[in-house]
């Protein structure tokens, strides 16, 4: 029986709030609201968010729950750190397909099953609070750091890797690469490598990875880079 499915792939549950202390909205993507008018859909979605609140801390932030029947009102979802997540309220909840990326939360839900599949058709590539350009040497070093994280994350149990580096000018850069935990290792690697291949070139001074603060997201993985610490994990 098809059902509401909940997927929590929590990375920020393990992170203390630190210097980057605002739940910045990187971006979102929604289907047309006219697609979702069923009261059954609304009920299923409300049940889904209630279950997220209940189960967010289980199994290191990862869980699935099922409810509902076959048909267009089925909801498939994942959410990271639902206590910090903007579930869309009266706006996004009218849509059947939603993807939201915030600093402390990643949320996706759809009436179509997406577990185990990463998608490059919808992507978000953005500079965050800092639009300052990196020095070319720092940008190149930062890209190498992010390439290392892309290689390391698929082999980690929680499918994320983080690092920091010196910029040789008294500052640091911080990086994070993560996949949603429904992906197998090979798909996680392909997803992260896609981000760097498509959006991670350097040399023009105008690409996103030549900024001091940026994020790259597709449906299945994302990468963050900043000149202030946005993660602080207990080892």
Automatic annotation (TrEMBL):
Pfam name, any one: Stress-antifung
Keyword Cell cycle attached: no
Annotated source species: Erythranthe guttata
Domain (Gnk2-homologous) ranges: 119-230
Annotated PANTHER family: CYSTEINE-RICH REPEAT SECRETORY PROTEIN, OS03G0564600 PROTEIN
Superkingdom to which the source organism belongs: Eukaryota
Keywords: Repeat, Signal
Stated name of the protein: Gnk2-homologous domain-containing protein
Xref: InterPro entries: GNK2, GNK2_sf
Keyword Lipid metabolism attributed: no
Signal peptide location: 1-20
């Amino acid at each position: 029986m098809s059902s509401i499915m909940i997927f929590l792939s929590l990375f920020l549950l393990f992170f203390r709030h630190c210097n980057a202390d605002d739940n910045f909205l990187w971006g979102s993507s929604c289907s047309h609201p006219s697609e979702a008018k069923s009261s059954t859909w609304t009920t299923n979605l409300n049940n889904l968010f209630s279950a997220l609140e209940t189960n967010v801390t289980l199994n290191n932030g990862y869980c699935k729950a099922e409810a509902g029947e076959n048909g267009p009102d089925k909801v498939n979802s994942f959410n990271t750190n639902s206590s910090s997540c903007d579930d869309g309220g009266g706006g996004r909840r009218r849509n059947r397909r939603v993807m939201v990326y915030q600093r402390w939360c990643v949320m996706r839900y759809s009436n179509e099953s997406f577990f185990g599949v990463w998608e490059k058709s919808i992507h978000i590539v953005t500079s965050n609070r800092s639009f300052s350009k990196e020095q070319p040497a720092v940008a190149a070093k930062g890209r190498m750091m992010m390439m290392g994280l892309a290689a390391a994350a698929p082999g980690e149990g929680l499918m994320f890797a983080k690092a920091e580096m010196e910029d040789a000018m008294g500052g640091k850069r911080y990086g994070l690469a993560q996949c949603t935990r429904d992906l197998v290792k090979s798909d996680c690697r392909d997803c992260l490598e896609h981000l760097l291949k498509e959006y991670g070139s350097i040399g023009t001074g105008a690409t996103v990875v030549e900024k001091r603060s940026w994020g790259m997201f597709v449906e299945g993985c994302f990468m963050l880079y900043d000149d202030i610490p946005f993660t602080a994990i207990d080892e």
